[in-house]
Automatic annotation (TrEMBL):
Coiled-coil annotated residue ranges, if any: none
EC numbers for this chain: 2.5.1.54
Organism: Streptomyces canarius
Pfam families: DAHP_synth_2
The protein's name in its UniProt record: Phospho-2-dehydro-3-deoxyheptonate aldolase
Family, as annotated: Belongs to the class-II DAHP synthase family.
Signal sequence extent: none
Domain of life: Bacteria
Gene giving rise to this polypeptide: aroG
């Protein structure tokens, strides 16, 4: 793997047990430790979903993105569900991603790396521990159930085994349907699950590989620098991402780069900025400038979804396509001005004909019609293609 001419890496990474004994945000309160131990053991001996060589191949593709020679398109459900793990749903999402990638490749004259938010996106960070009924909040099918009953909402460690099995089924379909080369990624949230799916790399490699996905990212709510999630990501050999919200300081961003890309490997680190359309033009430039001055080649990816969420009068969590487009435009403006590569996007979308976001034919009164997401609102096909058309213009300049 190609390295920058940076000073030698710092100390060897901490052992896993130490790294993940740091403060662990957003972890399920499993009712029974014996059950968790049994599940961890089963996952430790289970076949991984992906192999180290595939993760290395993705790092190489993301290195092209980092140096401005490719674009990365990441997308899929906010939260996958066990019941939604059907042929038609997976096919719809993959086909949409592929259509979008084709438009962007034509517009930019650059290869587009497809990264499906699929085959493992089964756990969600939440802003409150309890819901309006006083029940533990839904945290994703890997942890508990969506239905508002005490039994469904109780965290069940066996769900980690179901998540692994469902992911394996999805992964098999991804490979078969796309003929290889579509990569998968999800948020690395549940540490019991992710740690049990680490696998050693080739002899001599000091870092373990994730067996759960090609790409893992750390979310906005679990990115504290002294926390277990960053400690975990630091250990991985896979390419990793970190979501950066509008409160991120340039100094913090630099610290993520030092910690998560200590060896200066282009493509190793993706900074996923999700600033919101109102703030992106102010908040992003000093971050990009400081990171660029460090000399690391990171992937700059824009998530124009998570900074633009609000609750509609109908009570539905939603987003306006218009705001998504504005954040994307701001992201392109900033990177063009600073001479850095606006290398990709991270979108919540589905090929299903849902009514979760506003715009492109969906108004507030339409939201209840097909509001099916288990968590955040997704772009439907028409909305995603509208975003793609605008992205194509931005890429062409
Ligand atoms: C997500 O990607 O679904 C998510 C929770 O994002 P963020 O960590 O950026 O809030
Ligand atoms: Mn989301």
């Amino acid at each position: 793997m190609m390295h920058l001419g940076l000073p030698a890496a710092g100390p060897a990474p901490l052992p896993l047990a130490v790294a993940v004994s740091r403060p662990r945000a957003q972890q399920p309160e499993w009712p029974d430790q014996a059950g968790v131990r049994a599940v961890r053991e089963a996952l430790r001996t289970a076949p991984p979903l992906v192999l180290p060589a595939e993760a290395d191949r993705l790092t190489a593709r993301l290195a092209e993105v980092a140096r401005g020679a490719a674009f990365v398109l990441q997308g899929g459900d906010c939260a996958e569900t066990f019941t939604g793990n059907t042929e038609s749903h997976l096919r719809g999402n993959l086909d949409l991603l592929t259509r979008m990638a084709a438009v962007l490749a034509r517009a930019g004259g650059l290869p587009v790396v497809r990264l499906a938010r699929m085959a493992g996106q089964y756990a969600k960070p939440r802003s409150a521990a309890m819901d309006a009924h006083g029940l533990p909040v839904y945290r994703g099918d890997m942890i508990n159930g969506r239905a508002a009953t005490p039994a469904e909402r109780a965290p069940d460690p066996d769900r980690m085994l179901r998540a692994h099995a469902a992911s394996a089924v999805a992964m098999n379909f991804v490979r078969a349907w796309t003929g290889g080369e579509v990569f998968t990624g999800h948020e690395a949230l549940v540490l019991d699950y992710e740690c049990a799916l680490l696998r050693p790399g080739p002899p001599g490699d000091r870092r373990p590989y994730s067996g759960s996905a090609h790409f893992l990212w750390i979310g906005e709510r679990t990115r504290r620098l002294d926390g277990a999630h960053i400690g975990f990501a630091e250990l991985l050999a896979n390419p990793v991402g970190v979501k950066l919200g509008p409160t991120t300081t340039p100094e913090e961003a630099v610290e993520y780069v030092r910690r998560l890309d200590p060896d200066g490997v282009p493509g190793r680190l993706t900074l996923v900025t999700r600033m919101g359309h109102r703030r992106v033009r102010d908040v992003l430039p000093p971050i990009v400038e400081k990171v660029t001055a460090l000399g690391h080649q990171v992937v700059w990816q824009c998530d124009p979804m998570h900074g633009n969420t609000f609750v509609a009068p109908t009570g539905h969590k939603t987003r306006r396509v218009e705001h998504v487009l504005d954040e994307l435009a701001g992201y392109f403006e900033v990177h063009r001005r600073l001479g850095t590569h606006p290398g990709g996007v991270h979108l919540e979308l589905t090929g299903d004909d849902v009514t979760e976001c506003l715009g492109a034919g969906i108004g507030e009164t339409d939201l209840p019609n097909r509001y099916e997401t288990a968590c955040d609102p997704r772009l439907n096909t028409r909305q995603a293609m509208a975003v793609t058309a605008r992205l194509a213009e931005l890429i062409r300049r």
